[in-house]
Amino acid sequence: MADAKGFIDAVKARRTRYQISNESPISDDRIVELVETAIHDVPSSFNSQSTRVLVLLKKEHEKLWDITKEILKTQVPDEKSFKEHTEPRINGFRGGYGTILFFEDPGPIKALQEKLPMYADKFPQWSEHTSAMHQYMLWTALTAEGFGCNLQHYNPLIDQRVANEWNVNIEWSLKGQLVFGKPTSDKLMDKTFKPLNERIFVHGK
């Protein structure tokens, strides 16, 4: 039987962490194993299996954020703002150990749209749900292994460069970038919660 308490504890422990280092508490093989588990076992709409991931570690991870910084420098018109805000933020991501990039392959989605036209307009939305589940699973799993993580969205600015640099199919849609590294601080950002009775409605209890 699965350890329900362990799962719930992992869900509660998952938080955004920006203060991370370029160290890893686990082996690269273990990281890849977690990614393989996500791709194999996380569900997808109509079993579309449309999620694709690119795992970048160490120098390849640093290269991604060097590319991102280079692109953003052309997008931020105020050099002072870039130096004071944008560059330090990107350097923080670069200082991690790795990044997992999440993509959705439109091929399986189009096939389902043709097969089931009644739901054609919904499949792109359900594809987003599929990607989100993979992101959440890996964020939670990496946290449980001792990493600090934060989820970024620099798409579509970096899409073409990523495709060129790592031979990624340009048709794939980049959805997010999960940055991870060994935490350097136990301090967490304050998080507020709306009342549960405004968000949960139970009937028949």
What structural keywords apply?
single chain; 7 helices; 205 residues; alpha+beta; 5-stranded antiparallel β-sheet
Radius of gyration: 19 Å
Major sheet characteristics? 5 strands, antiparallel
Give the termini distance in whole angstroms: 26 Å
Q: Quick one: overall form?
A: globular
Q: How many helix segments? A: 7
SSE topology string: HEHEHHEHHEHE
Unreliably modeled segments: none
Mean pLDDT, all residues: 96
Proportion of residues in extended strands: 15-25%
The total count of strands amounts to: 5
Q: Could you say which structural class the secondary elements and strand pairing correspond to?
A: alpha+beta
Helix content: 40-55%
What does this structure look like?
The protein is α+β, with helices and mostly antiparallel strands and 205 residues long. Helix content is 47%, strand content 16%. The protein contains 7 helices and 5 strands; from the N terminus they run H-E-H-E-H-H-E-H-H-E-H-E. Strands 1, 2, 3, 4 and 5 form a 5-stranded antiparallel sheet that branches. The protein is globular, with a radius of gyration of 19 Å. The protein starts with a helix and ends in a 22-residue tail after the last strand. The mean pLDDT is 96.
